[in-house]
Structures are given as C-alpha cells and as structure tokens.
Fold these 3 entries.
Entry 1:
Amino acid sequence: SWDPSSRILEWQLADVPFAGFDLRFSVEPQATGDWPTNVQAVADLIDGFGQPDRITFPVPRVQVIAPTPTPSPSPTATPTPEPAALYLPLLLHEICVPEQRSTDAVLVLDVSSSMRGAKLTAAKEAAKAFVDLMQPARDRVALVAFDHEARLASPLGSDLTALRAAIDALGTRQGTAIDQGLAAAYDELRSSRRRPDATPALILLTDGQQPDGQSAILDLGGRMCEAGVQVYAIGLGDAEAVDFQLLRRLACRPAMAFLAPQVGDLRRIYESIAAEIPCDAGLFWGRR
C-alpha cells in the first residue's frame, strides 16, 4: 500500500512461499542527475524459529538523462521515454540449524534377485550408516523393501535398533516393482506416524529398471515432491543399466539423484543425503 502523506510504500506478507517471490515498484524521474530510488528500504520479519528480525537493504541509485532537443530554428518536442521498471536487490539472512530440525525418512531398497551378494551387503551397510546418523530424540526412519511387490519392513519410528535388525533381515526375490516401492513409502509418509513438523524424505536405491512402469514412477515422484517430500534416488551400477535419466526425473531436483558405479560408493552417498535433508536447498532460500 502507498501512503502519499508519509510517502511510504509498504507490503505486508504472510505465509511466504518457499519458492520465493518478487516485490516490484516503479518510479517516475522528475529531474536529471544522479538520484537514489528511495530513502530507505527495510524488512521487518519473523523468522522460521519465531524470532523477530530486521533487514536493511542498500539504496540503489539511477542516472536520469534527459532527451537531447532536436537542434533546429523551430524546436520540436521529443517523445517521452516509456517508464521502466526498477528492481531492488533482496538480501535474506537465513540460518538452518540441523540439530533444531527433525526428519521423517523412508528408506526404499531394491531387493530383487540382481541385488544378491555384494550389492545387497553394501546396500545394507550403507542404509545402516544412514540410520546411525539419525537422532532417536528427533528423527524417525522407516524401511520399505521391494522386488516383484513392496512391503513395509519397518514403520516410521525412533527404535533404530529394531530398524537395523529389519535391514539385516532383508533377502532377495525375483522382480523389480519400483512403483510399488514408492507407493508403499508414500503411504507411510501419509500415515498417522508421520509428524507434521518433521521434514519428510524418501531415499530410493535400485540397480534395475521397470520399463512398463515409468509413467507411474514419475507420477508418484511428482505428487510427492509437490506435497513437500524430499525425494532422493540412487542408482547402483552402470547409468544405462539403472536408467539414471529416469532417476533424475524422479528426484525432486536432478542434483538429488546419485549414481553409484561401485558398491563402495553407497555409504558416502547415504551419508551426504543424511546431512542434507534437515537443511535442504529447496526449503531455505539462502542455499539456492
């Protein structure tokens, strides 16, 4: 709103979107020369932790140049330039403290027959390394395993010892139903065990493809990302063998898809995901 008496332009915002927004205004020059666009620009806000804060923005300056009259015995008027929009820089001071945020994560593991042996052993160890980085006081983790069908091997909970035992108990069977694994994980993230104040995350690991279910996979991924679930995808093996391009489209952002050419790469990937979830770039403007 604009108050002519005080010459103050003010915006009042609530429920600021994570995706960001633009605030714009235009000014009409009244004289030539070097001028500031405004006297002062500040933002009074309440941050994500409920604390008041104020941000003072730098004041841009513009050079106003008048059109040159046409030199002639009988001067003629020159057209007035069209007003142009001016854009102010926006400075945001955001702090994310991982220890102050909680996570509800679902590990979705491919246990098809192609995962038998060293692959499954490495997948189990990497998944347990992820679990070891969780804090029972604030984090919950679930386990979904899939082959030709999906099953909830361990529901969302803070009993990480029981979760490790469920991971160790996994065995392989025929089939690769990635879409069913994703659907089972999404169901768990919509269950009563999911906490509204926790960051929901899904981490898929697969070494295969599902040629007849790609549309279902991408549809589920899109719906989860729109619902605020942080969807990560890990392909184990050759990029073509695991259809890594599909995994990049499934993840909420291409950077949230990882390729592990060797089983030894899995632990590092899981650990990096565990560190990223609490302060994901999609939730905090300062990391975009």
Entry 2:
Amino acid sequence: MNVPRYALDICKRFITGQWENITSDEIVVKQLSGGFTNQIYHCSLPEGREPVANEPRHVLLRLYGIGTTIPGDNYKVTDTLITLLMSERGLGPKLYGVFPGGR
C-alpha cells in the first residue's frame, strides 16, 4: 500500500482547505510506534502550506490492524464511540471522520 497516497485520500474525504490542494508527494506522513496491532500515522501539511480556515495542520490517522477484534466483539464500535464522545466534550482530539478500517 502506498501510505502517503492512501493517507491523503482519507484526509481529502474529511478535511477541506489546503488538504484538498496537496499531492501525495507533498503530504508529510510519519508512522508512530507503540501500537500492538493498529498502525498510527502523523500526517501534516508540507512546509509553506498554511491552513486557510479551521482545518488542522496535523492529523493522526489510525488504521485498524488484523486481530483487533474477535467474532462477536464490538471493540471497534465501542472504541470509536468513546473517541467521538471525548472529542465532542473537548476531552480528546477532534474526530474528523470514521471509515472502514480506521478513523
């Protein structure tokens, strides 16, 4: 998988402004370590591209890994719901979107 291209496609679905105008060669993507099964990426606008409205300069992209659930387990739903509630109450990072395979 071409991670920068995939990350940008996801960001363009949920974030407007400069995110719509950059290419997969320009987006800055760094994989963060520490996850057991999920992959977490720090994505940011390139140097010289300032946000034009309220869009973020940096976002985290979480891709669910194999083995994050077992049949009948609602882990992903519960985890996403908790993240959404914390975001809405200002107790966690803003949730910009949920998509099959991540958020």
Entry 3:
Amino acid sequence: MSKREDGRLDDELRPVVITRGFTSHPAGSVLIEFGHTKVMCTASVTEGVPRWRKGSGLGWVTA
C-alpha cells in the first residue's frame, strides 16, 4: 500500500482531536479537528417554547 505526502497510508485517517468546553459562554461546546479542518459546535438552552407550541406538551429544538 502506498503512502501519502504526509506519511499516512492510503486508507489511514488523519488524527482526530476533540476538545470539550472549547468556549466558556454557551451551555456546551466542542472543537473537533481533523488535520487542518476544524469544526466548532456550541449549544445553548433557553427556557420555554415558542408561543405556538405552548400547551402542546411538546418540546422544541432548533439548529
């Protein structure tokens, strides 16, 4: 099997680094790194639901 320029085998993934609590203000955050690719995810929590959802007994999630 051949190697790539960075020394990885053809079927080898780049190292993955996951850093929890990357930012201090949201309820949750994580930084995921795959080589030079970085993805930052954050989550926040707000009490209640939209007006049209009140009294339905259902929750609400948005992205």
